[in-house]
Amino acid sequence: MANQTSIVDKVNKQLLIGGTWRDSADGTTLEVDNPATGGVLARVADATVADGAAALTAAADAQAEWARSAPRDRSELLRSAYELIVERTDEFAELMTLEMGKPLAEARGEVVYGSEFFRWFAEEAVRISGRWSTAPNGATRLMTMKQPVGPTLMITPWNFPLAMGTRKIGPAIAAGCTMVVKPAAETPLTMLYLAQVLQEVGLPDGVLNIVTTSHSGEVMEPLIRDSRTRKLTFTGSTPVGRKLVEQSADQLLRLSMELGGNAPFIVFEDADIDKAVEGAMLAKMRNIGEACTAANRFFVHEDVAAEFGRKFAAKMTETTVGNGMDDGVTVGPLINRKAVDKVTDMVTDATARGAEVVTGGTRIEGDGYFFAPTVLTGVPGDAQMAREEIFGPVAGIQTFTDEADVIRRANDTEFGLVAYFFTRDVSRTIRMSEALEYGMVGVNQGIVSNPAAPFGGVKASGFGREGGFEGIEEYLETKYVGLAL
């Protein structure tokens, strides 16, 4: 394993604008912390409003030529980038662990997952097509064609530093769109290293521009309101997403919004309990619980609640908390102290309302931002953790009596990203899949994310889809041509 210094030192800490790495206009930098220690990991350029404008100009200037590029060339470029990311799995994994905290084994899993978006969209790039038909009156031929939307702004979150980038950049490259990417200030290193990989495989100057900044709103709002921008894609919280949608209204931008979640995890009385517990660990503890797809509300049928709760708590107790770079660690730190405070407040609120802590329930003192894996039972529906995203290693269990009851309670939220349920009843599987008001549903499994499937939600969880056949459509406009005979 390479040492920490060599991995971080390989990453260019500047802004990438028009193919050139450069300092911010005023020379300022922002600190990137290691959440396992609380110490400073690196300093990267802190972009100004002028830097953002320069990045958009570079993207706009490169758009026409990039749109004319051959689909096969774009495909081969993505394929080469995929292979180089895989070749550098250990480096990407270590960067993510250092700047975000997830255990090294899990970070390697993200490299596999994230790189697959480049491979998938490499294959989609050469399959962009329209149609040809005869008008009903026979007098006209109808032709449609797909063309790139144009310069795209991308705002990515800190919790999946690689995959949230590749999931947006992959289809944009495949479709022929140029980009300005603003990664989260907490985790910019992985995105900067990804940009270096894309440069190495020959991505033309100006197609991808990276702007790291500690004042996102100030830098990005002028770009959102600029007439040269044609699309905005954002992954993050619903409140921020709503604000961005408002800012985009003047330009009527194409939007993809992947926002917050409040995922129900439902265990029916006929479920395989051991399999449900295994799924619960994946749905809850993936990424230390810091995922919009994380199971947030556990609804367990009253007949099996005791067994499920006991086995689930036992599995949570078996986890090992620590620095993600250390051998044997399965649960890393939360992203910062604010995140630990939020989770602590949620547990306090739930217990004040009558919930009981079965295991965990406390922050872990010392360096870094750690919280013990936690299971609570008897969590009331009005508890804070039942209404808001927890974003931490905490599971609150409620019980239910019948199918109609749990459907009502599962849907009783403004969010609608993903839902999970476990049952052996085929008819119930169909009923539940149709009744749950969510963009994605996991049946007898705790992870649904897949590059070959459309990722996205409904209601306050946003709109648009990433991944799957649908993913590239978000970056394409449909043009109709009527040909008179």
UniProtKB/TrEMBL annotation:
Keywords: Oxidoreductase. Coiled coil: none annotated. The keyword Isomerase does not apply. One of its GO terms (biological process) is gamma-aminobutyric acid catabolic process. GO terms for molecular function: succinate-semialdehyde dehydrogenase (NAD+) activity. InterPro entries: Ald_DH/histidinol_DH (IPR016161), Ald_DH_C (IPR016163), Ald_DH_CS_GLU (IPR029510), Ald_DH_N (IPR016162), Aldehyde_DH_dom (IPR015590), Aldehyde_DH_Superfamily (IPR050740). Residues 21-481 form the Aldehyde dehydrogenase domain. The active site is at residue 258. Belongs to the aldehyde dehydrogenase family. This is Succinate-semialdehyde dehydrogenase/glutarate-semialdehyde dehydrogenase.
